From TrEMBL:
Protein keywords: Membrane, Transferase, Transmembrane, Transmembrane helix
Signal peptide: none
Superkingdom assignment: Bacteria
Family indicated by similarity: Belongs to the bacterial sugar transferase family.
Lineage, highest ranks first: Bacteria, Pseudomonadati, Rhodothermota, Rhodothermia, Rhodothermales
Bilayer topology annotation: Multi-pass membrane protein
Transmembrane segments annotated in the record for this chain: 12-32, 44-64, 76-101, 107-129, 297-318
SUPFAM superfamilies per UniProt: NAD(P)-binding Rossmann-fold domains
Compartments, as annotated in UniProt: Membrane
The protein's name: Undecaprenyl-phosphate glucose phosphotransferase
Domain annotation Bacterial sugar transferase: ranges: 292-471
Length: 479
């Protein structure tokens, strides 16, 4: 119910935002050409005919900006920041599109007024909606009373979510738990760190019917019962279903899976009407995935084009440093465990590992050539991997791929190691820009890789790319 109401509000907001953007576009024209400096040579029709294109561009940019994510907090500062980010992205896309249209030049002042007006309208709309909904809820309008069965992590997080979205109109009347009133508050949830409370247990699971009848007699009938219980508690869930079936309360299941530590991209899907719970999965394919791939191709193409003279110089230096090919192809494991040949500039003599076999790079080793040692220290030997990105084997940002021979050892020694292959391997990553590369802690590296996968966004990728450039390519752990 919470998700359905959130989606309804998001779609309504999106349509309202598009309408306000159209209004801001016209009002900006009036201010620029009829109030400040009246100009008859630029009729309103010139700007109105571009409204469909403006709406399409801004609609796509607003969706990509994350403005309609369900976790958006309702603090004024966060609302303003979210709108500012969305407007900034929309303006950037609009200006980029107008660059290719030469038949008509938009007024720069008009675009400034348009940005200010659209920002004000979008923020004002949200403040008006939230203020109206809060006022209506305070008066008891359409409030739905919720009883949560299970006061564990799942139940407490659910209650925090209802408190976090008071404008949704869900009132938690209490918890049912067989532990009685001894249930303690769980540690602060990272999604809602400011909300810490001790759950109010008003009965056991077997007393569900009595509790609902008592609340009904107090003129507080329960509308929804959420069973936030482990999957092993199937008999208790059946008991709740029986009690709800002879009353008007609806029943929803929220499986308590927090005892499973290694969850990744968990979600619920539908297969021919059957609900399927995904505990460990790769990121679902959506528009952001398409945009990420487009950015990978564009960025890699530009890098290879811009650095072509440098790449040619390195290739000559490698060829002159020792006999053998310029490039070194090494088998690595990528997305979903598929292997590929990762390209590098050759930094060691040919057959350097023939006698020793695969060896983990360590400080003080002398296997590299003089040119190769410099390339490794500056990470310039990694530049050919942009060809891997163009081929689709890798992404610009993602967990660094490893050799299968080492993975066979790490997968049994480090919990969750294989989960890093639920994302496409990258040239740079969150672990690398934080110094976890080379002969450093594998456990910390995996921790940072999994954090990246769980919190991935386009903005996160751009941050990592910027950190890679700012911190430079030279690293004390690169050898």
């Amino acid at each position: 119910m919470l998700r359905e109401r959130s989606l309804f509000l998001q779609r309504g907001l999106f349509l309202a935002d598009l309408a306000l953007i159209a209004v801001a576009w016209v009002v900006a024209y009036v201010i620029r050409f009829q109030v400040l400096t009246p100009v008859d040579s630029v009729p309103l029709s010139y700007y109105v005919q571009f409204l469909p294109f403006v709406a399409a561009i801004w609609g796509g940019a607003l969706l990509l900006s994350g403005l309609y994510q369900t976790r958006r907090a309702q603090r004024l500062t966060l609302v303003v920041w979210a709108v500012a980010r969305a407007v900034g992205l929309s303006l950037l896309v609009s200006l980029g599109a107008s660059f290719f249209y030469r038949e008509f030049s938009f007024s720069r002042l008009h675009m400034v007024f348009f940005a200010i007006l659209s920002s004000g309208f979008l923020v004002g709309l949200r403040l008006a909606i939230y203020a109206g909904l809060r006022r209506a809820r305070q008066k008891g309008a359409n409030v739905r009373r919720v009883l949560i069965a299970g006061a564990g992590k799942a139940g407490q997080r659910l209650s925090r979510a209802f408190r976090h979205y008071p404008w949704m109109g869900f009132e938690v009347v209490g918890f049912l738990d067989d532990r009685g009133t001894t249930v303690e508050a769980e540690p602060p949830d990272p999604f809602y760190p400011e909300q810490t409370f001790t759950p109010e247990v008003i009965g056991t699971l077997e007393e569900a019917g009595e509790v609902m009848d008592r609340l009904a007699s107090e003129n507080r009938p329960v509308d929804m019962v959420y069973a936030a219980l482990p999957l092993a508690a199937s008999r208790k869930i059946e008991g709740l279903a029986a009690e709800c079936s002879i009353r008007t309360a609806s029943l929803a299941l929220v499986p308590d899976l927090f005892h499973i530590e290694l969850l990744l991209n968990s979600r619920i899907s539908d297969v021919d009407g059957l609900p399927v719970i995904h505990l460990m999965d790769e990121a679902p394919f959506d528009i952001r995935t398409v945009v990420k791939r487009g950015l990978d191709i564009a960025f890699s193409g530009l890098v290879l084009l811009a650095l072509a003279p440098l790449l040619a110089g390195i290739a000559i230096a490698v060829k002159l440093s020792s006999p053998g090919p310029v490039f070194y192809r090494q088998r690595r494991m990528g997305l979903n465990g598929l292997t590929f040949d990762m390209l590098k500039f050759r930094s060691m003599p040919v057959n350097a590992e023939k006698a020793s076999g695969a060896v983990w790079a360590q400080p003080g080793e002398n296997r590299a050539t003089r040119v190769g040692a410099f390339l490794r220290k500056t990470s310039l030997d990694e530049l050919p991997q942009f060809f891997n990105v163009l081929r689709g084997d890798m992404s610009v940002v993602g967990p660094r791929p490893e050799r299968p021979v080492f993975i066979s050892e790490f997968r049994h020694r480090i919990p969750g190691y294989m989960l890093r292959h639920k994302a496409k391997a990258g040239i740079t990553g969150w672990a690398q820009v934080n110094g976890w590369r080379g002969d450093t802690s594998l456990e910390k590296r995996i921790e940072y890789d999994l954090y990246y996968i769980q919190n991935w966004s386009l903005a996160f990728d751009l941050k990592i790319m910027a950190m890679t450039v700012v911190k430079g390519f030279v690293n004390e752990n690169a050898y």
